Amino acid sequence: MKNMITKKISVMLILIMLFLVGCGNESEEVDTLVIYSNRNDRFVSNLLEKFTEDTGIEVSPLHGANPLQIVEEQNNVRADIFISNDLGALGYLHSQGLLKEAQVEGIDSIPSDFRSEDNSYFAISVRARGLIYNKDLISYEEMPKSNEDLLDSKWSDVENGYAITRGGNGGMIGHISALRYEWGDEKTSDWIQAIRENAAGIYQGHGDIRRAVGAGEHSFGLVNNYYFHQQLLETSNNNVGFVYLDQEDDQMGAIANAAGLGLVNNGPNGENALKFIEWVLLPENQVEFVGESLELLINSQYNANYPDVVQDQIVPFQDLKVQNMSITELGNYFEDTTALIEQSGLALDLR
Amino acid sequence: MFIKKFNKGIVYFLKMKWISIWKSNPPGMVLLLLSSAIALVMAIPILYVVYRSFFAGTDKWRRLIDGSIPGLLWNTISLTVIVMIFSVIIGVLLAWLIVRTDIPFKRTLKWLLALPLLVPPYVGAVTYIIFFGRSGWLQAAWTNNSFLSTLIGDYPVDIYSFWGVSFVLIMFTYPYVYLIVSASLKKMNRNYEEAAQSLGMNRFQIFRKVILPSLRPSIGAGAILVSLYVLSDFGAIAMMRYVTFTAAIYFQRTSFDTESAAVLSLVLIALTLIILWIESRSKKSNKYYQNSNSYRRPMVLKLGKWKWPATVFAIFIFTVSVVLPIMVLIYWSIIGIGMGAVNSRFFAYAFNSLRVATVVSVLCMLASMPVVYLKMRYPSVITRVIDRLSYAGYALPGVIVALGFVFVFNNFIPALYGTFYIVAIALIVRFLPQAMQSGESALSMLSPKIDEAARSLGYPPWKVMFKVVLPNMLPGVLAGGALVFVSSIKELPATLLLRPPGFDTLAIRIYVEASEAIYHLAAPAALLIIMVSIIPLKFMLDKY
């Protein structure tokens, strides 16, 4: 009798153990790399899969990660690499001492404007801010052409209005940081209030905006240029055009931002992280980094593969008039910019 | 000498007190400790959220009270009230039609109308966006139909609006009311209605003065379930771009304003407690007794000319809440599968979902047994506290449970932070009450006399537990486990906030893809979750 019971208890215990073991099969033996990414995961997934194929190192990605998660976890570091849409975020992490110097092969291929002095973070692809517009609703001539133009309330009267993202969107934060650099805080705050009041739709992200503009729900929307490229690929709702802002001689030039990556200090798999960085700097992998995003490569000579419809519309980064602030400067504005956005009445997250 | 005596006196006093708390029947220490430990895991994270919100600083509080809290209160309360009212109206009406009238296709309709429970509301929301949205199917049909567009003008539906959100939530929460009210309508005694009839009341008066009052407790219970759901919903609301407290807490957390998230959580906890308080009050003031000796089946009302309008109404609700979402999902799944959406990544997500749901349901079954046993066999103040704490995760949104876990684990148990375990434990906190409820109803069938008989045969308590009690509880516990399985496979906010790198589940993929409007990737996952839910739903329907 006693035996039976002991048996039952042990069977139960074994079952529990099995389940616990079952959940713990991420054993340390496999070579791994933990990557936090705040890029859309469709842009990143193929790149990471190719890395695993090429090197055998398994990648655990956390998509949709916020840079501040690296800050919060600094006593308990889990990430090895942070991939960001916004160099400002990387610059901010760097200023907090959370990134580590990386002297790796191939880093020279990145122009010095696009990497930190210690190479702890660098950019690979760039995008410019601008306005995607629906050609059925508005013509190129009728469109606003500069950031300054958007201060005018008349744009609230265009057919179906225009669209912006919420204040906390990485692209929006970079945009506003650049305006602060150019204009100072007061005028920038006026600008934020103007777009908040005059926009007909405030969206979570740029994907929503390009779809809405393509479908004619709004005349135009403030996005990064590659969302225009993406909308061109849609099977319908693709009669859209794009305005690069501030391209006249006396104007500030388009606001550019870049996507890139940083090496996290004290990450658990430091060696693999360095391997990843060297790997991603290979020309073919810089091309892969652009992936489905249809951004522009910093090294446009590596020839990112764009579909024909998109290729016809590509304006190489070198041909754009770009604002003269160094992109690595963005990090100095990261924290205060979000405060200014909120103070000016544009909610960071509440849509 | 004196001190020794004094000490002895205290020990004796405590012992007597202890025994009197337990009404001379104290439980074994192991059982008590085990239950207490489980209750603590349930409660600590939530207590910690409350604690954190107190230390957010007056600045934060003032900014939130002047800023977002009033708007959030209005958004949340108005939505809760509207959804509750309409869910009650639709739920009661349908229950009454199905149970008490001669509506055609009764048997089929009876379970068809409960099926919206299969569709997770965030999936439902996506399908409604695809169908009713500003560039959705209906809009396309509308603009192509020159008659409609010239007669009425532009497409009038704005799904991203207060009424749009309400509509989505009503369609997927009315079954709570429908099921509970159906059950009590079935049990109602005909005698009361006949008495009313003999007093000269007409049908409408009977409904208003006899049926409705006696349904009040079950309508109340359904309404509470609906409103707790609306307070806690994250996915559907986020999809609809509407902001309630739960969504605001999630967004504050993802932008790492943890203090604001804690403050907002405290307000939400207060709202939840108010609802539970209203419930407990209304329970006290409304007691209706049924006389079981003279029970007779309720009479069935002839609908007459109302027969067809009633049928059309029921079928309409079913079509909108079940047929339409599933059709949309099938349409997009076919496109998705054609485009290779069901690939190795998809299977990895499915495996993760399966793994977390299995672990959580097994552990919930195991953890529920000691707590339930203690509650049913050793009632006391202490038991009541343990029981209440174990239910903490039930009433509170997953977002708050997750927030508490982030705080506690990142600060005090960093080794577990960002692992699979923390997701599993959070889901156990959320869903243990479901397992406990099934376990309780199973154990309540088993008379304590059987325990006593076993004890009198010389079994020690733990032997009674394993040889007598557990085998009898097992069917109920297993059923509870099935329920937990389904709940955890579709759980969204806690998993979103706590998942470790590399751990995406089907629910998370649905949320991510659908919020980027990549429907062909979201749809196959949504269909799979719905299919998995069919079995436990069947089980639940049998219970009602």
Automatic annotation (TrEMBL), chain A:
Keywords from the UniProt entry: Iron, Metal-binding, Signal
Residues that bind Fe cation: 226-227
Taxonomic source organism: Natranaerovirga hydrolytica
Pfam family, one: SBP_bac_1
GO molecular function, one term: metal ion binding
Name of this chain's protein: Iron(III) transport system substrate-binding protein
Record Gene3D superfamilies: Periplasmic binding protein-like II
Automatic annotation (TrEMBL), chain B:
InterPro entries: MetI-like, MetI-like_sf
Domain ABC transmembrane type-1: 73-279, 350-540
GO cellular component: plasma membrane
Bilayer-crossing regions: 30-51, 71-99, 111-131, 160-181, 218-240, 260-278, 306-334, 346-368, 389-409, 415-432, 464-489, 517-541
Keywords from the UniProt entry: Cell inner membrane, Cell membrane, Membrane, Transmembrane, Transmembrane helix, Transport
One Gene Ontology term from the biological process aspect of the record: transmembrane transport
Topology versus the membrane: Multi-pass membrane protein
Domain of life: Bacteria
A Pfam family it matches: BPD_transp_1
Subcellular location as annotated: Cell inner membrane; Cell membrane
Keyword Transcription regulation: no
Protein family membership: Belongs to the binding-protein-dependent transport system permease family.
Protein name per UniProt: Iron(III) transport system permease protein
Protein's organism: Natranaerovirga hydrolytica
Lineage of producing organism: Bacteria, Bacillati, Bacillota, Clostridia, Lachnospirales
